[in-house]
Amino acid sequence: MDKQTRDAEPDHPSKTDGVAAPGSTGSISLKRSKKTAAGVRHERKTIRPPKTIKGAEHPKAHTIPISLGAMLVTIGVVYGDIGTSPMYVTKALLAGNGGIGSVTQEFVLGSLSLVIWTVTLLTTVKYVLISLKADNSGEGGIFALYSIVRRFGRWLIIPAMLGGSALLADGVLTPAVTITTAVEGLRTIPQMHALIGDNQTNVVIITLVIVCILFAVQRAGTSKIGRAFGPVMTFWFLFLGGVGLVSMLFAPQVLLAINPVYGIRFLFSPHNHAGIMILGSCFLATTGAEALYSDMGHVGKGNIYATWPFVKVCLILNYLGQGAWLLANQGNSALVGIEDLNPFFQMLPDMMRPFGVVLSTLAAIIASQALITGAFSLVSEASRLDLMPHLQVFYPSETKGQLYIPLVNKVMWVGCIVVVLLFQSSAHMEAAYGLAITITMLCTTVLLFIYLHSVRKLKVFPYVFVVFFVMLEGFFFGSSLTKFFHGGYFTILLAALIMSVMLCWYAGTAVERRQATLLPVRNYIDQLARLRDDNTYDLVADNLVYLTNGTNTDYLDRDILYSILDKHPKRARAWWFVNVEVMDDPHTFAYSVENFGTDYIFRVHIFLGYKVNQRVNAFLRQIVQDLSASGELPPQKRDYSVYKRPSTIGSFQFCMLRKTLAPESDIDSRERTAIALKYAIRSFAGSPAQWFGLENSSVFVEYVPLFTKFKSVSKLTRIAPNERP
């Protein structure tokens, strides 16, 4: 860029009556008015959506009422992960204690007591009773929680990114683990064993087929998936509770495990062969708790409150039933030789076992859904917070909280396939299972402390809460660290990769925020008028359209005006600056136009329901026809056409702006790296032209410099043509 061009650029708001934008240029929204150099206050003029909205059916679409249908969806979508824990928790506890030959009443009562109170304290108390109250307009999850408390400290971004990254990483692993475990469980049925055999390759192939089907149906939406999965999971929990209750009849003393004293006593008992590491196996019983919080936006907190007691009772009954079976068979020498003895299947009668294995396989497949839907919610929240690039989002159902993000679905799809191919067996995958979730839970605890202390203004309880749960989850984290070298490293590395993406995006956005500026449109009306009539420049198009994210009507991002006026002036008969805003109502169709008293500058705000396909090209043509019919847009004469009567509306071109960092920009290497990495990540986020239905339109991408201070250079000295310095 030459000096003349740089001198023509408005470097400071004081020179241009501009307003420094508080956010990144990709999502500019002024929160309050700003002063100009003269001290005059310019009031913000932001277009508001109409109070009466055409096609409105759900005035509060994000509020999901409690109903039997919604409760069925909740059971099908939310509890899959935690609902399959009885299949492997007791098995892991038994293996860590030396097998069936080492079973004693102290072990059964103590270990089950630890499981029951782990579920009670972490899932019921922390998440159901406390976390669900910390929602952001109905949305849950660690990023929604961060958005509530972030004003109380910049450092809070660290636990938010760390916890969110760990949860997303575990979400990639969970479908692979649960589905592989279920497929391997089919071998316990003689007929299925004859079909599958002992060749692990067959298990891998079947697992990959199921994984592909699971991710392929995500586009249908969690509401439709929940209606399909809900009845199966409801029957699954009834099955868990029923078989557990029947098994308890043979050893009713197992009910003593409800007393927490047995768990604490056994934790520090010399008969506890696993020591403190037994908590790592107990923690598997509550790995779905964080996903429960993240899925709140999909099903509504009321439906979680209504269904959790039923789910928890069924889980506890099954754990107690497995404990009763262990007590009844502790001296059974015939069971000692069974490899990987699983009390969950062994306590089933022989005639019922094939049915139980098939049902558990279905439940394990459904378990993957909780993490997938939770990942959609987490990424959506991260995008709103500018921690991740803005992605294309679909809302397949009538409820806005139930969303589908194609790119996230594809990434998790590929990730699950990689995990299955890399680890091959569930035994190898389980070594990594749950480690990352302990990190997420610790981070959520920190953010909840800030919420309780600073938002709810509670005095004593927040300190009791944070001390108790940090110590508890710290124990779980320490016990889970033993899994690191046996597969846990994969989850941690994946979490680190996701967090690095967030850090790069966050750091790059911070650099952009320091230079982002909004300029008043009215100050440039005269220049645009002269450019429109300046025949020395070719006509780019009759109508030149820029898509913006700003809702401020009177101001535009400086880069847009720079593109039109400075970066080879773009002459047009009319300039259109279009903003699309997604509304909470599913079927909104509305727009507003500000023409600044001209017939060639149009600031358009399009309000669309979240169920409406954002075909900007089609909607804009309707708006243009309306303005042409009203006389606000003068006829644009066309001399040539395939029709007998040419249209009075001319050609359209859409300009997509992309920022680039000039080599001579005066920023340090760290900031330059942050910007470069952010723009590299952005290239994988998809094409806005496709999101807005402009695939078949005339679209061109223009790169504009990221306005920063440029490095000073030494002044050159002019010498004679034949002279050498």
Computed over alpha carbons, the radius of gyration is: 30 Å
**Which homologous superfamily in CATH is the superfamily of the largest domain?**
Amino acid/polyamine transporter I
Q: What's the CATH class label of the largest domain?
A: Mainly Alpha
Mean pLDDT: 76
**What is the strand content?**
5-15%
Number of self-contained structural domains: 2
Note down, in words, how this protein is organized.
The chain is built from 28 helices and eleven strands. By secondary structure, it is α/β, with parallel strands linked by helices. The chain has two domains: 68-507, Amino acid/polyamine transporter I; 518-705, no CATH class. The strands form three sheets. It has a six-stranded mixed β-sheet with strand order 8-9-7-5-10-11, sandwiched between helices. A three-stranded antiparallel β-sheet has the order 1-4-6. The longest helix is centred in the middle third of the chain and has 32 residues, at 353-384. The model is unreliable at 1-61 (pLDDT under 50). GO terms for molecular function: potassium ion transmembrane transporter activity; symporter activity. Residues 544-700 form the K+ potassium transporter C-terminal domain. The chain crosses the membrane at residues 61-79, 107-129, 155-179, 199-217, 229-251, 271-293, 355-379, 403-423, 435-454, 460-477, 489-508. Transport of potassium into the cell. Likely operates as a K(+):H(+) symporter. Keywords: Cell membrane, Ion transport, Membrane, Potassium, Potassium transport, Symport, Transmembrane, Transmembrane helix, Transport.
